[in-house]
Amino acid sequence: MTYDIMFLRVLLGRTFGETLEEINSSYDPDAGLKPMNLTGEERAGWDRLMQRISREVGPVATEEFPYALTLWRDGPAGHLQLDYAGDSANIDIPYRYPGSEALPIMAEAYRIGRMVEEECGLEGYDYEVEQPVRTGDIEVAAARLGGIARWAQETLT
C-alpha cells in the first residue's frame, strides 16, 4: 500500500475529474494491457524530466518497462517511485514515514510532481487530500502520510 499522486493529460475543455471519469468508463478489465507507445514529444518530456530531477533534486535510477518508464528516488528525504506512460503518471510513496518524518519526502514528491507537470504537460492531483499538486498544501499531504504511517506502525506491527 502506498500514498499515490496521480497525473493525467487532461482532455481539452474537461476537468481532471472528468478526464479520469472518461478514462475509467472505457476501462475493460478483460482486455490485456497495451504496451506503452510514447510519442517523440512524450519521450522528450521524460528525458527533460530525468535531467531536471537529477540536477535539482538528486540522483535517480530509471528503467524502461513495456507499460511504463519508472524512476526511483532514494535520497535523504526517503524513497519514492514515479511511473510515466506518456499521457499519465503516478508517484507512489510507501507508508513508512510516521508523523513529522513524512514532511521531507512529501515536499520532495510535490517538487517532483510540479516538475512532471512542467516538463511533461500533465496535471497532478492528490486524491489522498483532495488537492491539485500545483497549488496543494504540502503540510496537509505530509500530515496525511505521517498519520497513516503512524497508525500502521502502531496497529499492524
Summary of the model, kept short:
By secondary structure, the chain is an alpha+beta fold. The protein has four helices and seven strands; from the N terminus they run βααββββαββα.
What would you note in describing this structure?
By secondary structure, the protein is an alpha+beta fold. The chain has one domain (2-10, 37-152): 2-Layer Sandwich (Cell Division Protein Zipa, Chain: A), CATH 3.30.1400. It has helices spanning 16-25, 40-56, 102-120, 138-156, and strands at 2-8, 61-64, 69-75, 78-84, 88-94, 123-126, 131-132. The chain has a seven-stranded antiparallel β-sheet, with helices on both faces. The two termini are 15 Å apart.
Q: What summary fits the major beta sheet?
A: 7 strands, antiparallel
Please tell me the total number of domains: 1
Mean pLDDT: 94
Quickly count the helices. Answer: 4
Rg, please? Answer: 16 Å
User: What is the terminal separation in angstroms?
Assistant: 15 Å
Can you give keywords for this protein?
157 residues, alpha+beta, 7 strands, seven-stranded antiparallel sheet, Cell Division Protein Zipa, Chain: A, single chain
